[in-house]
Every structure is written in C-alpha cells, then in structure tokens.
Amino acid sequence: MKIALIGYGKMGKAIEAIAQGRGHEIVHRIDINSSHLLEKEQLQQADVAIEFTTPETAYHNILKCFAANVPVVCGTTGWLEKLPEVKAQCLEQHQAFLYASNFSVGVNIFFELNRRLAELMATQSDYRSSMVEIHHTQKKDAPSGTAITLAEQILEKQPAKTGWVNEATTDPTKLGIVSERVDPAPGTHIIQYDSPIDSITITHTAHSREGFAAGAVTAAEWLKDKKGIFSMKDVLSL
Ligand SMILES: NC(=O)C1=CN([C@@H]2O[C@H](COP(=O)(O)OP(=O)(O)OC[C@H]3O[C@@H](n4cnc5c(N)ncnc54)[C@H](OP(=O)(O)O)[C@@H]3O)[C@@H](O)[C@H]2O)C=CC1
Ligand SMILES: O=C(O)C1=N[C@H](C(=O)O)C[C@H](O)C1
What pLDDT tens digit does each residue of the chain (238 aa) get? Predict the structure, then answer.
C-alpha cells in the first residue's frame, strides 16, 4: 500500500516505522515546509493518507485529500468544531474518512469499559466522577482528544451532568477534567468515581507511541478501498 504521511513529527515518524515494517511504501512525508505535496497530482500517488498534524491544519489537509479522491485517516486532535463540516463534505464528495481521538487498541477497549462503568454509575448518586489526563509538554491541545471522547461517553450516560470543564470542580452538574503536562508522558487517562465510602478508578497508560501508530496503520489498511465515514469501532469490530 502507498501511504502519504501528512505530518512528519513524533507521530508521523512512529507511523512510518510501523508502516514500513509491514511492507508499505511511504510516497510522501509532508510537513509544514512541503505543502506543495498536498496538491491533487501529488496526493493521488498514494492509496491512502494518514494525517497527524496540528489543530489549525487538520481541516484543510483533510479537504485536500477529499479533492484528490484519497481516503484519509486522521488522528489530529483539537479541531473537532469542524468535524460535522468534514463529515458532510465526505458524504457529499463520496470520499472515505476515519477519525479517532486515539488509535490504540488498549484505549479503544478502555472506551468500552468507560461507557459500561458510566452506565452502572448512572443511578449511584453518592459517587462523583472526575478525570485526569497526563501528556508531554509539547502537546498543543487540552484537554486531550481522548479525554473529550471519554467525557462525552460519561455525559451520555449521566444526564445529571450538563457538560465538562477543563479544571477540577465541585459542581455536580459538571465533569471536571484536569490536564497535566510533564515529560515524558505519551498519554495517561484516569477516570475516578469517589463516594464518602470508597473510590473506583480506571486508568489507561500508554508506554510509548507505538500503539497509536500501529492502530493508525491498521485503520489505513482497513480504509483503503472503502467509501464513507468510519471509526475505530468499525476497524476493531467493537
Ligand atoms: N489519535 C491518536 O491516536 C493520536 C493523536 N495525536 C495527535 O496527533 C497530532 C500530532 O501529534 P505529534 O506528531 O505528536 O505532533 P508533532 O508536533 O510532533 O508533529 C506535527 C507535525 O505536523 C507538521 N505540520 C504542521 N503544519 C502542517 C501542515 N500545514 N501540513 C503538514 N504538516 C504540518 C509539523 O511540521 P513542523 O515540524 O515542520 O512544524 C510536524 O511535523 C496532535 O494533534 C496529537 O494530539 C497524537 C498521538 C496519538
Ligand atoms: O498529543 C498526544 O501525544 C496524544 N494525543 C491524543 C489525544 O489528544 O488524546 C492521543 C494520545 O493521548 C496522545
């Protein structure tokens, strides 16, 4: 499979290593200095594009893939206000798009645990939920995309909560998400339920970027000849 890597930073390089290890060819490595490679004729040399850039650039990069008729796997976080527009464009232009706030198999299983735990806690009014996410200091967005996905799952099951805030809170109608930035930290997410009697905590800790990169390559292999909008739930059959 021929892959265009859009974003050649920490994730782009981790994805390159996994993709080449699986026998794929990287036809473009696109960073901020090589935006001419985002032109239609260049992108069309790839079977699939994998986009890991910045919150400011993801939206335009995805639209360029659509214009070139190239399926795109996107892992960039922090741009989700534009997601509905991207999905509409994908359907209108008959393209293929797969977004995940986290591509690792472990986190996608953790999402399922989180959803179930939130469901069980929905009728337990003694417990207060909260979240902590810990990442490296170069991370541009807070809270993390993964934390937002986890929060949305909790809010869906707990109607008493009307939203999340990116700080610790005692407001029972809000889910507090505390973001910590320390090095090194590839990504840790902690969900906690506290009552006066006890606490329940579930934690996912990434030991490296390998799981994110492997999941993104698996998603690209899966998306290559498809049309439509997909998620890691489709890829992993969860
Ligand atoms: N979904 C998931 O599983 C995961 C998602 N992420 C997300 O992926 C994104 C990237 O993370 P990471 O690799 O750590 O970040 P880095 O800062 O290491 O890399 C970002 C890359 O994007 C490049 N870039 C900036 N602007 C453009 C542009 N206009 N076109 C093409 N490339 C551009 C940068 O180029 P230059 O260096 O020249 O500035 C850099 O190479 C973040 O949003 C992060 O949150 C991260 C890990 C897992
Ligand atoms: O920027 C990162 O590094 C990560 N970003 C993703 C996120 O925002 O959730 C996924 C992972 O936690 C690493």
Answer: 999 999 999 999 999 999 999 999 999 999 999 988 899 999 999 999 999 999 999 999 999 999 999 999 999 999 999 999 999 999 999 999 999 999 999 999 999 999 999 999 999 999 999 999 999 999 999 999 999 999 999 999 998 899 999 999 999 999 999 999 999 999 999 999 999 999 999 999 999 999 999 999 999 999 999 999 999 999 999 9
| Ligand 1 within 6 A of CB of 108 | no
List pocket residues of ligand 2, CB cut-off 6 Å: 77, 101-102, 135, 139, 144-146, 187, 212
Ligand with an atom nearest the CA of residue 99: 1
Task: Quickly name the fold that domain 105-205 has.
Answer: Dihydrodipicolinate Reductase; domain 2 (3.30.360)
Q: State the greatest distance between any 2 C-alpha atoms of the chain, in Å, as a whole number.
A: 63
Dist. CA 102–CA 149, nearest whole Å:
9
Q: Which CATH number is correct for 2-103+210-236, 3.40.50.1820, 3.40.50.2300, 3.30.70.920, 3.40.50.720?
A: 3.40.50.720
* CA dihedral over 83, 236, 46, 15, signed as positive or negative: positive
- Sheet containing strand 2-6, edge to edge, reads 25-30, 2-6, 48-51, 72-74, 96-99, 228-230
Q: How far apart are CA 166 and CA 52, in angstroms?
A: 23
Q: Which of 11, 74, 80, 101 gets mutated to test ligand 2 (max ligand atoms within 8 A of its CB)?
A: 101
Residue nearest ligand 1's atom 8 by CA: 76
Q: Does pTM top 0.80 for this prediction?
A: yes
